[in-house]
Amino acid sequence: MTSVQRVSFRVLQMNLNHCWTAQQLLQQTMAERSVDLAIISDYHRAASDVQHWVSSTDGKCAVLLNRSSNAAISATGCGFGFAWVRIGAVALYSCYCTPNCSNDEFDTFLCGLEASIRNAQAASADIVVAGDFNSHSAEWGSASEDLRGALLSNFAAALDLLVCNEGTTPTYHRVNASSVIDVTFARTSRREQPLVTDWTVLSEINSASDHDYIEFMVNDSRGSHHNPFRRPETASGWAVKKLSTEKLSEYWNECGQPSILDNANADDHAAQLQKFLFDACEAAMPCRTVFKGRRAMHWWSDAIAVLRAETIAARRQYQRAGRRANQDGRTAAFEVYNQKRKDLRTAIRWA
């Protein structure tokens, strides 16, 4: 019998509000939190790395795979308002629908998305559907409900998709108001474990957008013979850039040239030479290390980290001023917050 193991990978869901700074910070946040995959709405610009980026046909949403992740994409697809990738037995959808479209246009978008998902179901894939639908319903924590929310709820019910949102923490903030419009759905044929766990709104991390990061784990079960997420414990080969000619010379002087074997065939001589070269490499170079996936972006620095923290503090002050309904205080707090955002954006551009 094939053993079954549980394999998890980390996903970050985010609406970038078409902001360049937010897209830069997204990549840094993925590195800091060892995120494997990002589900993105309203991005600023498509990534040039097409092997790790899949976008919708209208250019409004995308899926981004972290380069340092060992997750393997086996299939991709896209349509109007959605893009998807398949990793192992899971198909992950990134979705976005603008608040400016009509209810009929929203229904048409859902019909196209449903057709794509049913095709993925035929391929025996579990489903994660996430994004900014600009729809309101109490099912995912909204304080109000609208027709789009009802349409989205019916869409999810028809596909046996369950809401993964937990609590009523807002995912979107604007002046003196907030709401829950970023939603995560999941469907799995395995009843012994949930497909999505640890769903959290990361409201304490500055995203440079009017939306907060959403983080969750996707749990994929499969036979142990098929695990595209397994990270190697050791790396083969040596770090050639760290070659020490002094140590190589010491090894050569100590061991000398390999002796010629008597009555040996070509395979024996080749094996002896291979061992000699292997020992020389061991003596002169360290082994390569396995990258753990927490490398910062090239522009990241302690100074930018301080600016990001100051921006978070300024945003909290601005939100508190809004709740107190003090117009003068709110205006002053907004000016400070806006300046901190500009300082952060400028620092990243010039880094």
TrEMBL record:
GO terms for molecular function: catalytic activity. It comes from the Eukaryota. Pfam families: Exo_endo_phos_2 (PF14529). Coiled coil: none annotated. Residues 92-214 form the Endonuclease/exonuclease/phosphatase domain. PANTHER family: DOMAIN-CONTAINING PROTEIN, PUTATIVE-RELATED, ENDONUCLEASE_EXONUCLEASE_PHOSPHATASE DOMAIN-CONTAINING PROTEIN. Transmembrane segments: none annotated. This is Uncharacterized protein LOC112685588. InterPro entries: Endo/exonu/phosph_ase_sf, Endo/exonuclease/phosphatase.
